[in-house]
Amino acid sequence: MQVSITVNGVAHERDVDPRTLLVHFLREELDLTGTKIGCDTSQCGACTVHLNGKVLKSCTLLAVQADGAEVTTIEGLAENGQHHPMQTAFWENHGLQCGYCTPGMIMASAAFTRDNPGASESDIRHYLEGNICRCTGYHNIVKAVKQVADAAGA
Amino acid sequence: MTTRIFGSGIKRREDPRLITGEARYTDDIKLPGVLHMAVVRSPYAHANILSIDSSAAEAMPGVVAVYTGADIGDGLAGIPTAWLIPDSDLKQPTHNALAIDKARYVGDGVAIVLADDRYRAQDAADAVVVEYDELDAVIDPEAATKAGAPLVHDDVEGNVAFRWVMGDREASDAVFDAADVVVSERILQQRLLPTAMEPRAAMAQYNAATAELTLWCTSQNPHIHRFIISAVTGLNENKVRVIAPEVGGGFGSKIPCYPDEALVSWAAMQLGVPVKWTETRSENYLITIHGRDHVQHVEMAASNDGELLGVRATVYAGMGGYLSTAAPGIPTILHGLLYVGPYTMDSVFCESIGVMTNGTPTDAYRGAGRPEATFLLERMVDKVAGALDMDPVDLRRKNLIPRFDDGYEVATTLIYDSGDYPAAFEKALDMAGYGDFRQAQADARANGRYLGIGVTTYTEMCGLGPSQVAGAVGFQGGLWESATVRVTPTGKVQALIGASPHGQGSETTLAQIISQELGFPVDDIEVVHGDTTETPMGWGTYGSRTTPVTGAALAKASQKLKEKARVLAAHLMEANADDIEYADGSFSVKGSPDQSQSIQDVALMAHLAWNMPEGMDPGFEESQFYDPPNFVYPFGTHIAIVEVDAETGVIDLQRYIAVDDCGPQINPEIVAGQIHGGVVQGVAQALCEGALYSDDGQLLTGSMMDYCMPKADMFPNFELGETVTPSPHHPVGVKGVGETGTIASTPTVYNAVIDALAPLGIEQIDMPLTSAKVWSAIQAAGA
Question: Do residue A94 and residue B669 have CB atoms under 8 angstroms apart?
Fold first, then answer.
């Protein structure tokens, strides 16, 4: 099937197998491999992207369902060559180790703090339930997200 | 003085590529014409394979080939076990890359499909018709040794793959017979799923003209992978290039060489095109190694005045359907040798029985044998305290080995390098406010609330080498590391290492060591790892060994370069080498500070070689092989405070205090991160993680929907402290810290929960302590 999806501001027209997951479309068709796959069951959040500005696990949607949509992936989060504040916060706070969950964590957290400036630590921990990290014990991830939430709420 | 780089919590140099999605993990790498491999896996835990019909699959669109174990024949040798414990009557069952006559666990591969896309490969794998004759299966390692249990391998009698004995049984019996108090428990160290966030993947490319194989794979030890892939494929080792690109966590699960890596290699050689395989998470849970799986019968002896006299255990360790790469070493050498822990306890005895079962093969999972030892010790110490009606903190304080700075031999024959257990212990108790807590606990109990505290004191052995010890205990490799510090003419540094970090931040930590030693700015130092063609030989990243062992190699290589620089600088300044002073990357002549040569100046002159001292070779590069003279022994005290809701069985982890001593900390932020992550993995074993099987060997926790991964909302912010006791034998004094959190935290939280439930008379609940189990125990106790 023919789809037209705008990813990171660039329009892409592709003929896809109707069963292609959006995450495979991004990774295989567009070679945007920053979006990761960590489970088959929509638990881990490694594949989190923004679809029309909303947070979405891209393994839960078929590419054909994203026809006409605007998608932002980790590769498109920086603006004008500057890291997004959430990327900076993860770096400054040692909010990552192996980095595999990181793109999804950052995408989810960036949308969360945009929508919830000033969020509390407890809010953040609760929200991050949809993103699994095996390395950091979440401590420094929470610290990074709190830094951005505090700045957004100030 | 500039800021001391050693000890500074600088940002990680790894991160820019990771936070932007630019890093390339194995599955991110694309090769033109690549075929995808899907594996047909046994749906039965134990079954004879009667026939395989691949005709329908072969006719499907995009399918290039289907192969069975019979098709491969002797094209691949069996996957070897690389830790053969001496004096244990070890039997190494054949492990074919694809099962031929019999499948031995759910997920055992029976055929492979190669197709032009991963969806089509999987479709075709589903269309391969395999006829099985299902056999009775056995999962519980103790039950598997009983008469009449299904036999997993015909040539492994009674399913006992090895039987390892540590200590003198009669001497141990004498201690226990004479003791005032003996406590005991049957401890289940449940199976855990390592769950590195990146599933495993492998891609192979073969050049028939040069007979060279390149294998990209998710490895913690590409040089070991090369070694084994060479043996399994029959290719010369110098024709095999293994590349571990970005690797998304391992925790031990990416140490072993698996059938899948051999299969993509064989298929690529067979078909002359690149072949890629990427695991799904469900597949990962079925086929990537599991951890722990012990049934332990443990006893501890003590005197009435609270002296710990001895510990002994019989351990049934589930090995699963095959003996994985390092599996026999985990419940033996890495387990029993820790039975003394941090205590002045003279009698130890362990009989560890490695048992074949119809579960997924087990192997090293973060801590690997040491968490299982520390848990049983700390459980027993708390039980002794209960039996003596002594405060468990007082009991520990009475039995801790006093401070030692250079060697302390314990009953297991290990010589601990250094330790100040009382210092870490008292610091942690202060941070927790232990005395006040006991009062608060009593007040809470009076109000029907169940607060508990758990205190763990531990030490552990890591930084694996030395190689002589490795050989003596049957490890089929060395445990040294090597490194090259290469400086370019313009004064930039490439450090090449044989180890293979995969998330630990070692590129940063190791650069800090080099910067400290040589004075190059840390941003001018790159650490190169993961590619067997680019890097010198090394045995890999596991056992908390990269900072201690590779770090030592780099420190010593740097020191050699510095000495060369000093002599060359003296020559260039026409001074005597003895009159050269070094500070912050600059060499100057004593008494004339205006005359100096920077390390970069010297590097350039060494490359130009226009004016070298007599006998000095050109170039500015040094290599170092480093075989550690002993393990390193980090230690510390962890404390958890929990509240159990007696109505629901829900456990609230309110505080977690960790005081760890890993010697001088090179990057305190990275050290803290290792402890945070380790603690969460260990706490999760206590509270929620556990792989469950049905009686017929089906994995019931086969996805993240059923396997309880720890989430952010289960934890408080951690309270970390440290003491600093350098290792006397290490060039910069450091010890490993990658596993301490996992080793210490499981008993800490477990004991806290049991402490909370003490008024109800509850002494034991099998892990994980889910709310359902805790609630049931409370109901059974009649509360």
Answer: yes
Q: Does B116 touch chain A (CB under 8 A)?
A: no
Question: Torsion-angle region of residue A35: left (phi > 0), alpha (psi -120 to 50) or beta?
Answer: beta
Count of CB atoms situated within 10 Å of the CB of B328: 29
Count of Cβ atoms closer than 10 Å to residue A42 Cβ: 14
Per-residue three-class SS string for B649-714: CCEEEEEEEEEEECCCCCCHHHHHHHHHHHHHHHHHHHHCCCCCECCCCCECCCCCCCCCCCCHHH
Whether B677 sits inside 8 A of A44 (CB atoms) is: no
* CA nearest to B11 within chain A: A92
| pLDDT tens-digit series, residues B93-143 | 999 999 999 999 999 999 999 999 999 999 999 999 999 999 999 999 999
Please choose, from the candidates B312, B44, B323, B342, the residue with its C-alpha nearest in 3D space to the C-alpha of residue B179: B312
Strand order in the sheet with B109-115: B63-68, B109-115, B35-41, B275-278, B201-207, B212-217, B240-243
Contact A32 B21 (CB under 8 A): yes
| A127: three-class secondary structure by DSSP | helix
Residues of chain B found within 8 Å of residue A92, distances taken between Cβ atoms: 11
**Beta bridge partners of residue A15, listed in sequence order:** A2
ipTM of the shown complex: 0.99
Q: How far apart are CA B422 and CA B420, in angstroms?
A: 6
End-to-end CA distance of chain A: 47
Q: Tokens 């039995």 — which residue?
A: B399
- On whether any CB of chain A is under 8 Å from the CB of B654, the answer is no
- Could you tell me which residues are beta bridge partners of residue B189? B294
pTM > 0.90: yes or no = yes
Residue B749 at interface with chain A, using a CB cutoff of 8 Å:
no
